[in-house]
């Protein structure tokens, strides 16, 4: 993660709203997208469909909001991939381990769809910097949710339902742990910091993006406890709604 932050600090983001990006920008985004997608596949972070979806998302983020958005996405992949590897044997015993072939397309789009949509709207018509904040918050939530779930399941710690604080087995939908929540909050802060270092968002917005990502993570747990446990929503829908909640929360926080 430190290496990612150091590389990100050297990247600047063009925020000009005048005209389309130059051809060199499109080519650069295509190159880094192909490298990223190939790396994710080789590391088994994604399966075939997930690789295609990830390549599309990373290309759109890079083209629409610049290299800083890609740096945030890369940070999301790094922290998520690392978290899935922590305590893997315990997760496998609990039946909560990430699939060895990696994430599929529906999972990728559920986590990254809102952030990418905000980037598209920003590039096509709005050019409102609040949409970049929304992208950052959505990606921060995706990182926070993944890290909190993975770390909470990895540690030998009692899990509690977010709605009534009853003790539940590790990996239960809507269950949270102190370690997982803390780790998820740090993940949201790390991604928001990358966004600040790359000038994707102003530094004064970094705490807002981190807070929105953390609150979105708690929304995810609440939806898991109330709707996913009743089979009213599946995990992909919960993740999609949680990233949307993080984006909305970011809008509200910046206006306080």
Secondary structure elements and pairings:
Blueprint: H1 2-8, H2 23-42, H3 48-65, H4 67-85, H5 88-94, H6 105-126, H7 129-154, E1 159-161, E2 167-168, E3 175-176, H8 178-197, H9 206-228, H10 235-254
Antiparallel strand pairs: 1-2, 1-3
Helix pairs in contact: 1-4, 2-3, 3-4, 3-6, 4-7, 4-8, 6-7, 6-10, 7-8, 7-9, 7-10, 8-9, 9-10
Number of helices: 10
The number of domains is 1
Q: What value does the Rg take, in angstroms?
A: 17 Å
Shape: globular
Q: What percentage of the residues does DSSP assign to strands (E)?
A: under 5%
> Which secondary-structure class do the elements indicate?
mainly alpha
Order of helices and strands: HHHHHHHEEEHHH
Q: How many strand units?
A: 3
Q: How is the largest sheet built, in terms of strand order?
A: 2-1-3
Assign a percent range to the helix content: over 70%
* Average pLDDT metric: 88
Q: Major beta sheet, specifics? A: 3 strands, antiparallel
N- and C-termini, Cα separation: 32 Å
Unreliable spans are 1-18
Task: Walk me through this protein's architecture.
By secondary structure, the chain is mainly alpha-helical. It has one domain. Helix content is 71%, strand content 3%. It has helices at residues 2-8, 23-42, 48-65, 67-85, 88-94, 105-126, 129-154, 178-197, 206-228, 235-254, and strands at residues 159-161, 167-168, 175-176. The chain has a three-stranded antiparallel β-sheet with strand order 2-1-3. Strand 1 and strand 2 form a beta hairpin. It starts with a helix and ends with a helix.
Short description:
This protein is mostly helical and 256 residues long. It has helices spanning 2-8, 23-42, 48-65, 67-85, 88-94, 105-126, 129-154, 178-197, 206-228, 235-254, and strands at residues 159-161, 167-168, 175-176. The chain has a 3-stranded antiparallel beta sheet with strand order 2-1-3.
């Amino acid at each position: 993660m430190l290496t990612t932050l150091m590389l990100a600090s050297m990247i600047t983001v063009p925020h000009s709203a005048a005209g389309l990006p130059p051809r060199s920008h499109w080519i650069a985004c295509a190159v880094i997208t192909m490298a990223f997608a190939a790396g994710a596949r080789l590391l088994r972070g994604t399966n075939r469909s997930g690789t295609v979806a990830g390549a599309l998302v990373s290309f759109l983020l890079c083209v629409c909001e610049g290299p800083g958005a890609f740096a945030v996405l890369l940070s999301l992949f790094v922290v998520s991939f690392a978290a899935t590897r922590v305590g893997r044997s315990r997760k496998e015993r609990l039946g909560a381990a990430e699939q060895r072939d990696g994430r599929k397309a529906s999972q990728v789009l559920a986590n990254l769809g809102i952030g990418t949509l905000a980037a598209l709207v920003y590039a096509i018509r709005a050019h409102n910097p609040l949409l970049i904040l929304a992208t950052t918050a959505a990606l921060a939530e995706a990182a926070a949710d993944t890290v909190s779930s993975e770390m909470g399941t990895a540690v030998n710690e009692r899990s509690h339902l977010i709605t009534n604080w009853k003790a539940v087995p590790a990996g239960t939908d809507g269950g949270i742990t102190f370690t997982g929540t803390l780790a998820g909050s740090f993940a949201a802060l790390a991604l928001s910091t990358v966004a600040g270092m790359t000038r994707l968002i102003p530094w004064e917005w970094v705490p807002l993006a981190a807070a929105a990502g953390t609150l979105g993570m708690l929304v995810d747990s609440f939806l898991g406890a109330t709707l996913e446990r009743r089979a009213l929503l599946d995990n992909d829908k919960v993740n999609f709604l949680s990233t949307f909640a993080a984006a909305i929360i970011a809008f509200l926080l910046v206006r306080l």
